[in-house]
Structure formats: structure tokens, C-alpha cells
Write a structure and sequence with these properties.
It is a single chain. The chain is about 10% helix and about 35% strand. It has about 325 residues and is mainly β. It has two domains: about 1-135, no CATH class; about 230-330, no CATH class. It has a five-stranded antiparallel β-sheet with strand order 5-6-1-9-12, with no helix packed on it. The protein has a three-stranded antiparallel β-sheet with strand order 4-3-7, covered by helices on one side. The longest helix is centred in the N-terminal third of the chain and has 7 residues, at about 60-65. It is globular.
């Protein structure tokens, strides 16, 4: 994995893995046998992270055909802003003579593995890369800070009987009770999609109260002067999402939670879906928008493939009901 300056893998030894389902349908994670880093991540320099996975594993074919390589990137903010590049490449070490090579792994994680054998050339398979736009802070001001985001599909769309990557004609939804689906369901990938699939994305963000230091200011200072943050806006872009793939939002659900250490795990509704602690937050509101109400908060720009959402504290029942409420805590904020 190659990262431009401004990007890094936070914890090189544990932030990369292969996600797959074993023969019993149980979710498993497979971690590299060794890794090394050719830069100093704390200095925010460009460099590479190299991971070695052992192919001599009974589940390796399942990982190759139905697994996903997961990794975590972080903006290290060493003075860079704007688009920063990253690239993930895949290589195999295969001996064409049929004999096995032997790899010796150093203990310092700063040197590559040593290969002993007659054929130690790595065979390049594929690569994928993109840009990530990072925004490094100056002074801390009140506003939204995004902590995490992911997208996955929530159904499998239409049948593809000949496995050519195109839906059958006529379009027939997959039958989740059919023998063929039950026999192959663990080989499907949740992180890829095709025509007819339903997607769901999850974003976690928090309101920063600001900081009076480093020439900044706080939200209480704003409120003391009559300035309130009454609107929450979200702008997201999906390449080819509207003009080509026709990705149309169906439902938007907004959860409003408040830090609540030591609370009842049941008081944080659906926190597990967002991979956040159920005992650290208390759900105050869940607002759900669909149908005509969705059109009241959403604007789509087909030319730029952008989705704009605006939530207002002046909402007078635009959403389809308050799914959950806790006025006691809400009124204290």
C-alpha cells in the first residue's frame, strides 16, 4: 500500500486484514503474518506499507473469491491539504517449479522479508487507487467533525444465472430462500454492487464545541452573542452516481445521540450498526425521512453527481414521526 504525504495507516500492525466468511457462514478476519513500513508515519511522509499473507491456509480460496481486503487510512495533517493519493497493489509469490519458497521475517518491521529459493520474483496481479481530500484544522471552531463513513449493499438485486456480471433478462429478484442462494450466500460480497442492488451508508459525526485557545472560539460564546447553529447540512458526492448509475436515495434516518458514559446499553439505539459503543451514548431523537418528506430536505445535482441534505431545528413535522425521544436530556443542551 502506497500513501502520499498527509496519509498514513494509524496502526500498521492491526489496521489491515482480510474479511471473509468460512464454510459455516461465520464472519472471520485474517491478519498478515508480517508487515514492514518504509517510512516514519509520525512524520507524515510518503511511503509504503507492505503486508505478507500466507497462502498456505485452508480458507485461502474463500478469501480470494469472496473476501475483502480492509484497511484504515488516516489524515496525519503535517501541513498538507487537498487531494492526496493512495494505491493498493496485489502481488503473489508463486514458484513455477511447484516447490515452496521460504520467507524469513525480520523482527523490526522496517525491512522486507527475505526469500530463499530459486524463484523469488513477485507476480503483480492488480492495483486500485484514488484520491482522498483531507482537511487539516487550524484553530478549533464550533461545527461538525466527521469520524467515520462506510457504504455497503443491503440486498443482492437481480439474478445472474450465467455469472457474466449482467442481470438476467427479464429482471428477476434473487430468491433468498432458494437452494442456489443458500448454497452460495457466503461467497457474495457486501462491499461491491451492481444494477438493482440496494445500498446503505453509515456516517458518524459529532459537534465540536470549539476551543477558545489558538485564537479560536466556542459555541457558548456564539450563543452569548445570539448566534445559533440551527441548520445541519450534508454534501456528498458519488462519482457517476446520478448521471450514470442512477443511485436515488430512498430513505434518510438521522440519529441524534448525546455522550452518556455508563448508561444502559439499550439507550443507544442502533449504535452497533455504526460501530460505536452502546454504553457511551444516549439516543435523543431518531428522525426518518422518505417519500414527500425526503424531497423537503434533499436537493440532487445530476451534473456534478452531488447529494445535498439540510436538516433544520425549525422542522415542524416534515419527517415521518419521532421514532424515539428523550426530552429530559434534550432540553438540557
Amino acid at each position: 500500500m502506497e500513501c502520499d504525504s498527509g496519509l498514513r495507516v494509524p496502526t500498521a500492525g492491526s489496521d489491515t486484514r482480510i474479511r471473509y466468511y468460512d464454510s459455516t457462514g461465520t464472519l472471520q478476519y485474517y491478519y498478515p503474518e508480517y508487515y514492514y513500513v518504509d517510512n516514519t508515519p509520525d512524520q507524515c511522509l510518503p511511503g509504503s506499507y507492505v503486508y505478507y499473507f500466507n497462502l498456505n491456509d485452508p480458507d485461502m480460496m474463500r478469501m480470494i473469491y469472496g473476501g475483502n481486503f480492509q484497511f484504515r487510512l488516516q489524515a496525519c495533517c503535517g501541513g498538507q491539504n487537498g487531494a492526496r493519493k493512495y494505491k493498493v497493489t496485489y502481488d503473489w509469490l508463486i514458484n513455477p517449479s511447484g516447490s515452496c519458497n521460504t520467507l524469513t521475517f525480520p523482527s523490526n518491521h522496517t525491512d522486507p522479508a527475505l526469500c530463499s529459493g530459486t524463484n523469488c520474483e513477485w507476480l503483480p496481479l492488480s492495483f486500485v487507487g484514488d484520491d482522498i481530500v483531507i482537511h487539516c484544522p487550524g484553530c478549533v471552531t464550533p461545527g461538525i467533525v466527521i469520524r467515520s463513513y462506510r457504504m455497503e449493499r443491503s440486498n443482492y438485486g437481480y439474478k445472474d444465472s450465467d455469472n457474466d456480471g449482467f442481470a438476467d433478462n427479464p429482471f428477476l429478484p434473487i430468491d433468498y430462500n432458494s437452494p442456489s442462494y443458500l448454497a452460495t450466500k457466503n461467497d457474495y460480497g457486501w462491499l461491491s454492487s451492481s444494477f438493482g442492488d440496494e445500498l446503505i451508508d453509515y456516517q458518524v459525526a459529532e459537534l465540536s464545541p470549539g476551543d477558545a485557545g489558538t485564537n479560536g472560539y466556542t459555541y457558548p460564546q456564539m450563543q452569548a452573542n445570539g448566534a445559533y447553529l440551527n441548520y445541519l447540512q450534508l454534501n456528498r458526492s458519488i462519482r457517476a452516481g446520478l448521471d450514470t448509475m442512477k443511485v436515488q436515495p430512498d430513505t434518510v434516518t438521522l440519529y441524534i445521540d448525546y455522550p452518556f458514559t455508563g448508561g444502559d446499553p439499550d439507550s443507544c439505539i442502533d449504535c452497533g450498526l455504526f460501530n460505536i459503543s452502546s454504553t457511551s451514548y444516549h439516543t435523543q431523537r431518531i428522525l426518518k425521512f422518505y417519500g414527500a418528506a425526503l424531497n423537503q430536505i434533499m436537493v440532487l445535482d445530476t451534473v456534478s453527481n452531488q447529494y445535498f441534505y439540510t436538516f433544520s431545528s425549525f422542522d415542524n413535522g416534515v419527517h415521518q414521526g419521532i421514532l424515539h425521544g428523550s426530552d429530559t436530556i434534550l432540553q438540557q443542551q
